[in-house]
């Protein structure tokens, strides 16, 4: 009698080479022996995806997205075939499938397609035959059978969506860290592993720079209340549970600190304070494909104001050119840029109802002589832009102040 | 107005790296500019297939064949996506397809599947939209959508089958040599390129060691009288036409000489000369999966005879063990083995009606002090087993005798 169905997802570092794949196979076999049914989603081996992008780059600077998907999807197809072989080698029946073969139907937005529906008949049949089902992550097909991919981190989405469709009892996300930490352990060695976190907190963590799980997949998990266990494929320790309500939430206001070093800041000075001006600015910038993130505009006492915003640093040149053009059009003043910024954020569901938290954050930064250049707040996070070289110091100071470190 | 449809196939060395792929794209574009419609079949980049086999070997010594096909088919998927990008880069519309996407339906004999039918609707639609169609060679799908591969050299088969299905006017096979040669140019520098050769001659050449084209694909071409042009992707020179009737056939008896260094010889001594003994021997050997090739049994004057046969050298250990076992069962004598043999063959449609040809071959070998250990003849070929170290000498001597060299 089956103990129930578990969906597991193994990231690129977990299947980086044949040795690692064999380790994953052993773990899968141990679950199978305990009596679980298993659907296993795999990413591409180690750096395969980057190598394929590099290969395409040698052919074309702007390859058609349909062909990029055709190319990129091979990475996961390779790893799922190899994992099926490794599991068979251990004496269990296994069968690998591409996204198309398991009926993951997407829209036709190549390179970042959205899942429309999953027709899981082949998976159900294989599970009935007592097979471990291995699914290539990150991919699907359009209704015309063109191969699509789900965007960076898309294997997480494959795993979460399959957990929902198959009504599995758990979705385990295996990675190379032991779970979600209060801040990046590479920045603050004293960062603590979080035992349990809510979907909303995790969403903020993901969008503010924690790179453990794809944000879209967390949104889906939240929508369908899918229990997720983020853990390491290199150990058997329990990781972090992502759940609807955190049992330990009361009394804990700040759950984590994130650091994002990949943004740049632009400021338009002396913007005429008229309705519609902000819309005009950001409409023009979006036309060159730049993703504007944090936007701050001070309430002005005069007829003029300054507007600051951040953009991905890689898109700074286009953003700067377009911003200067818009500034002239709207008769604003100079445009200032700063590529050397860091965004430091604190995250926690309880924060909103405790206004003292923001003040505490600003005070900690001040005590450490860290000047705050921009502030932005959301329902469950507060972000400050500081000088890039002070980012790590800020994270450590905040970890300490909010009791997020190991004692 | 289209000048008609041409199917082109590019082998692994023709698409070994991004630079070579760009060269192939230029050639495709030049045909397109001349007004041809094009369907292009590609093999995997250079050594990709061997690398994937090596990867599987690190996981399992005996991987499931279904998973091997899942793995191996990615090689061609990568190259067809890259070629489509390269053609788009030159300003022509292109679209890549896997074997499954263009409806190449096979039986389920994984790793050496046979094509059952091709549903070419997507190709027709893409051609109507004036797109260059790129098809991943070597692969298809079963009716259950499991990925299959067509065996080594299977891209040739994809190209020939598509030529038939699409009723194309020509199938061009691009490789790294300039066509079919009278013998291997690496063995005899003076070997001549053949302008035109019949399907039957080409079949003998392929099965006797010339590695330019897969034998199965030539069988299909013969069956449907599909004109094939074997030529180099590194030059614009005309190659070799494979046709139903060779215009230059009269007066030319020997068309080519082949050398096969990959076989080993086994001899069972003192076999009782009774009906059914040969059947018994080769039935047992086939049970261990060994492919017996040339078989020679002398007519005997006594009640005993010697039977010699060749097997692929890589399968010698299994073949030897099984042969010894059978020899005991049938109460024969010793089993002798020789791994250091070469098979030298001459090929030509006109040979059969000119009995002097065989004598001429044996005489040339004798003049060069090359001892003949086995002889076997077919409708259009004569093969001799000689000492391996004398193989190249034999080829050169035969080339000269039969006027197959450049003057």
Describe the structure.
The structure is a homodimer of 407-residue chains. With 407 residues, chain A is an alpha/beta fold. Helix content of chain A is 35%, strand content 25%. The first copy, chain A, has helices at 18-34, 48-59, 65-89, 121-128, 154-165, 199-207, 215-224, 277-287, 316-329, 356-367, 391-401; strands spanning 5-10, 37-42, 94-97, 104-106, 115-118, 132-136, 139-141, 147-149, 170-175, 196-198, 228-232, 240-243, 256-260, 263-272, 295-297, 304-312, 335-338, 341-347, 374-378, 381-387. In chain A, strands 3-6-2-1-9-11-12-10 form an eight-stranded mixed β-sheet, with helices on both faces. In chain A, a hairpin with a 2-residue loop joins strand 19 and strand 20 (381-387). The first copy, chain A, is globular. Chain A binds chain B through residues 18, 21-22, 52, 55-56, 58-60, 63-64, 66-68, 70-71, 73-74, 77-78, 80-82, 84-86, 88-89, 95-96, 98, 100-101, 145-147, and chain B through 18, 21-22, 52, 55-56, 58-60, 63-64, 66-68, 70-71, 73-74, 77-78, 80-82, 84-86, 88-89, 95-96, 98, 100-101, 145-147.
Low-confidence stretches of chain A: none
Distance between the termini of chain A: 45 Å
Order of strands, widest sheet of chain A: 3-6-2-1-9-11-12-10
**Looking at the structure, what is the overall shape of chain A?**
globular
What integer is the average pLDDT of chain A? Answer: 89
Oligomeric assembly: homodimer
Our estimate of the beta-strand percent of chain A is 25-35%
- The number of helical elements of chain A comes to 11
Specify Rg of chain A, calculated over alpha carbons.
23 Å
Structural class of chain A: alpha/beta
Query: Based on DSSP secondary structure assignment, what is the total number of beta strands of chain A?
Result: 20
Biggest protein-protein interface? Answer: A-B, 36 and 36 residues
Main beta sheet of chain A: strand number and arrangement?
A: 8 strands, mixed
Report the helical percentage of chain A: 25-40%
């Amino acid at each position: 009698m089956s103990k129930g169905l578990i969906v597991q997802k193994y990231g690129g570092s977990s299947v980086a080479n044949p040795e690692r794949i064999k380790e994953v196979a052993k773990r899968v076999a141990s679950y199978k022996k305990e009596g679980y049914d298993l659907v296993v989603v795999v990413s591409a081996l180690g750096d395969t995806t980057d190598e394929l992008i590099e290969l395409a780059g040698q052919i074309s600077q702007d390859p058609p997205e349909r062909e990029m998907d055709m190319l990129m999807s091979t990475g996961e197809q390779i790893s799922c075939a190899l994992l099926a072989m490794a599991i068979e080698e251990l004496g269990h029946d296994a069968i690998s499938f591409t996204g198309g073969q398991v009926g993951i139907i997407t829209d036709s937005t190549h390179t970042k397609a959205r899942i429309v529906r999953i027709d899981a008949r082949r998976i159900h049949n294989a599970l009935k035959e007592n097979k471990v089902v291995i699914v290539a992550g990150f991919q699907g097909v359009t209704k015309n059978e063109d191969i699509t991919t789900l965007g960076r981190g898309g294997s997480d989405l494959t795993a979460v969506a399959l957990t929902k469709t198959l009504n599995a009892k758990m979705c385990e996300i295996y990675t190379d860290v032991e779970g979600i930490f209060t801040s990046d352990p590479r920045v603050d060695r004293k960062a603590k592993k979080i035992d349990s976190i809510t979907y909303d907190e995790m969403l903020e963590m993901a969008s503010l720079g924690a790179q453990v799980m794809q944000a879209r997949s967390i949104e889906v998990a939240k929508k369908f209340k899918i229990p997720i266990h983020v853990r390491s494929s290199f150990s058997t320790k329990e990781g972090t549970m992502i759940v609807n309500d955190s049992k330990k939430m009361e009394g804990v206001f700040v759950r984590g600190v994130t650091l994002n070093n990949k943004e740049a800041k632009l400021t338009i000075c002396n913007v005429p304070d008229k309705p519609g001006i902000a819309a005009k600015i950001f409409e023009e910038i979006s036309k060159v494909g730049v993703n504007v993130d944090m936007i701050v505009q001070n309430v002005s006492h005069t007829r003029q104001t300054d507007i600051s915003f951040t953009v991905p640093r890689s898109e700074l040149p286009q953003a700067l050119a377009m911003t200067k053009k818009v500034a002239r059009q709207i008769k604003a003043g100079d445009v200032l840029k700063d590529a050397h910024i860091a965004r430091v954020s604190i995250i926690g569901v309880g924060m909103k109802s405790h206004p003292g938290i923001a003040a505490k954050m600003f005070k900690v930064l001040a005590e450490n002589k860290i000047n705050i250049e921009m502030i932005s707040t959301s329902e469950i996070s507060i972000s400050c832009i500081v000088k890039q070289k002070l980012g790590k110091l800020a994270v450590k100071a905040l970890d300490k102040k909010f009791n997020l470190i190991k004692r």
